[in-house]
Structure formats: structure tokens, C-alpha cells
Amino acid sequence: MANLTLINLVPPSLPVNYCPTNYQTLANDIISGTQAVFNSTIGNSFFNFGASFPAINNRVYPWLDDQGLWWIFTQGFWIRKNTVEAAGQERRMFVGSTIDLGLYDGGDGAVTVTSVTGPMWEIDAAFAARFPVGEDQHKLTTPELAVHTHDIAIQVFGHGGEDGTRDSADGGTYSNPVTNNTTVFPAATLDTSLDAEAVSVGGDIAHNNLPPFYGVYFIKRTARVYYTK
Fold first, then answer.
1. Do residues 47 and 63 touch, judged by C-beta distance below 8 A?
2. What is the DSSP string of 123-140?
């Protein structure tokens, strides 16, 4: 059966003819001479634990903080590796300013990126974002209209005629382009067979069809590797 004892205590070997002066001295000598041996294949191992920074003389040992995260001290920092690969293929969507992005996920807002300084994430320029995009309503301007024409009716006057219709014309005619205004020309006097075509209007240019929405940034990991404290 495996030995599940984490620490074995090895008592001291007291000198021959050892004679303590009192019980307290005996206890002190036993305690001070006892050795703690870790039951580990890697030998004795020590680490810091707690929410506060370990003392300077304990920086040689790793630190397990109160969040369950492991840190080691190097390059003047307590460091921990980001689990997302530096400069890797992972992409995220980010809503916020570029200043916010510089501080996101442990970034320090610095411009220069090293393994322990600078932003953790940066904007992926392959995906542009604009703020805001689209419109709630869009009224087409004349250049945005499709190129088109309108038919208009022609009023024909008969010279010498009795009723102003084409049938009463005595040879020559006079045409006046109007827009079926029955107040000026009663409907009975319009010759619908002589419709004319107005000049074309509209520019056929593209216009916005997007409903309103806000863009987001697609971000990627920088070359920074480690979180720092």
C-alpha cells in the first residue's frame, strides 16, 4: 500500500550520557533536532501560500495565492503564464475603447510588448470596426434613386376646331406638355395616345441599407506571455 504520509518526522540522536538540566531543555533539544522529511520523489519542496506577496527571502519558492493560482518570481516580477497562446490563432470579440483593450486580461497599457510587459491583446486589423454603423431611417436623395422616366400626357389644340379636340383640328396642331391637370384641361380633351416621356432622373448610386448596430473589435493575442504581479 502506498505511503500517504506527506511529512515524516525524524527524531534527533541525542549524545551519549546526555543529561538535560530540566524538562524544558529536553523538549527544546528534541524539537530543534527533529527533521521533517517530505514523502516526495522530488525531495523536500516548499512554497508560499496566501493573499499577500511573499517576503523577499522567500522569493526562491513558488507562490500559491488565495485564488488558487501559482506564481514564480523572475525578472523582477511574480509571473504566471497566460493559458491562451501568445500570438496564436484564437480570436475574441471586444466591446470597449483601445485604452480599455490595453488593460484587458492583465495588460498594463504600455506600448512596447515583451514577455512580461505591454498589452495581452491587440486589434486584429483584418477585421475593421466602425462606431456606430447603419441608420434607423434613410431617405433617398435624387442621386440615390434608380434612373427612371415618367410619361406625361400631351394636350392637342385644334386650330379652328369647335371643341378643342384633335378630331376638330383643321390641319395644324399645337402641343403643350402638361401633367394631366384636369382643372386646366378637362379629361375629355386629353389625347392619351400622344403621351410624351420626361427627362430621366436619378443617379443609380448605392445607398445605405443597414439597420443601426454597433461594431465590435476582433482581437488577438500579442507576443506577451506572462501575467505579472
1. yes
2. E-TTS---SSBS-S--PP
79 burial via Cβ count (<10 Å: 0-12, 13-18, 19+): middle
**C-alpha–C-alpha distance, residues 196 and 178, integer Å:** 10
142 φ/ψ angles, rounded to the nearest 5 degrees: -55, -45
What span, in angstroms and rounded, lies between the C-alpha atoms of 207 and 141? Answer: 9
**176: β partners:** 155
Concatenating the DSSP letter of every residue in the chain gives: -----SEEEE---PPTT---SSHHHHHHHHHHH-EEEE--TT-----EESSSPPPGGGTTS-EE-TTS-EEEEETTEEEEE-SSPTT-S-EEEE-S-HHHHHHGGG----SS--SSSS-SEEE-TTS---SSBS-S--PPPGGGSPPB--EEEEEEEETT-SSSSGGG--S-EEEEE----TTTS-GGG-EEEEEEEPPPB--------PPPB---EEEEE-S--EEE-
The model's pLDDT over 4-63, given as tens digits with 9 standing for 90+, comes to: 566 788 999 988 899 999 999 999 999 999 987 777 666 666 889 999 999 999 998 999
CA-CA-CA-CA torsion sign (161, 164, 170, 175): positive
Q: Is the peptide bond before 15 cis (omega within 30 degrees of 0)?
A: no
Is the full-model pTM beyond 0.90? no
